[in-house]
Amino acid sequence: MPTNTGEERKSYLTQITSELPAFLDILLNYEILEHIRGQRTGVQSDINPDLANRKEESVPEIVLIELIQGAFKAGIIRSADEPWRGAAMELHGRLTDAECPNWRVAADRFGGARSMGVFLARLAEQSDHFAKKIPGADRARRPAPRVRHLHAAPTRRRTRTPMSQKLYTPEQVAEYLGISVYTLSALIRSKQIACCRVGGCKRITEAQVEQYLKLAASRPPRKYRRHPPIPADLSPVWQQLTDIALAECPLLAPCMQDATLVSINKQSRIVTVNAHTAEAALAIDARPNKAAIQRHLRVLFSYPLRLSVTCL
User: Fold this and answer.
1) What is the spatial distance between Cα 37 and Cα 29, in angstroms, rounded to a whole number?
2) Which residues of 134-162 are buried (b: 16+ CB within 10 A; e: fewer)?
């Protein structure tokens, strides 16, 4: 019935409403036929034959049978009167070979020989027409177990501590030596003091401590580099720097004469200079001039110093 206009839709609704009682009567009094009657829901499920065939074709066992038949036709798996015998690994290698017509399908569906062996076993359980399991064949193909020689030396040798020696904790050894535990740990890491482990904890014997003390006593004393002391009067130091600047950079010398060396902090290594004019401060604080002054200060005091310029 057409439903283009309002009157047509109204007549269509009236016709549907008038036929609903008859349709409900058919549904209530309908008897299911014997050939479509089922136990679970009362009606058997209807499956499209084309979809059923496609589902059956996608089963891995069916795909494996088709691959084996294709390999027989292509001559990849040769067999005369007797059936072909081989393991799942050998079959996987032949089906995934580039000469096999459907080797990509075999490589995608069966990633390894183990999965192919699983489906071969399922085929053998269902029917021995395509595959049959030979008892004892897998045992014969297993590699021989690896034998370890009893006379072989261990790969790692551990030093054993005699039971007669007493073990001390790192805290006790550090207190005995008069050092901190962190210093003792550094000595152990640098292998200057030997130690052993008991349950993951470090323990040190008296003999190991005595060995470290003997080695420490036999070493020559460490020579410390002494820096020249900072004089109380800093005007000669600044005058010396001014004379050097007069020889190397004549334009910088007048600016240095307008400045005064105030202090030299040995801990922070900062040299404070007070300039009397802004021009002198800018000239001394310029990068090349500042670097040259710091270089000469390092020559005088044997360690690097940083120049800080202020303007009065």
Assistant:
1) 16
2) eeeeeeeeeeeeeeeeeeeeeeeeeeebe
- Predicted confidence pLDDT, tens digits, the chain (312 residues): 788 888 888 888 898 899 999 989 988 888 888 887 877 777 877 766 666 666 555 677 788 888 888 887 777 776 555 566 777 888 888 888 877 777 888 888 787 788 888 888 887 787 666 677 766 555 445 555 554 444 444 455 555 555 567 889 999 999 999 999 999 999 999 888 988 888 888 999 988 999 899 888 887 776 666 667 777 888 888 888 888 887 888 888 888 888 888 888 878 888 888 888 888 888 888 888 888 888 888 888 877 888 888 887
d(CA 78, CA 71): 9
Give the helix/strand (H/E) hosting 28. helix 6-28
Q: Which residues neighbour 181 within 8 Å (Cβ) at sequence distance 6 or greater? A: 170, 171, 174
DSSP state of 43: B
* Complete edge-to-edge strand list for the sheet that includes strand 201-205: 167-168, 201-205, 196-198
Beta bridge partners of 202: 197
Q: How far is CA 277 from the centre of its chain?
A: 61
Taking alpha carbons only, the member of 49, 36, 54, 131 closest to residue 87 is 131
CA distance 270 to 223: 26
Question: Helix (H, G, I), strand (E, B), or coil: what is residue 101?
Answer: coil
- CA angle, 70 as apex, 66 and 74 as ends, to 5°? 175
d(CA 267, CA 146): 67
Identify whether the C-beta of residue 31 lies closer than 8 Å to the C-beta of residue 25: no
Decide if 270 contacts 306 (C-beta within 8 A).
yes
Q: How far apart are CA 147 and CA 292, in angstroms?
A: 74
Query: Strand locations in the chain, DSSP E?
Result: 167-168, 196-198, 201-205, 259-265, 270-275, 306-311
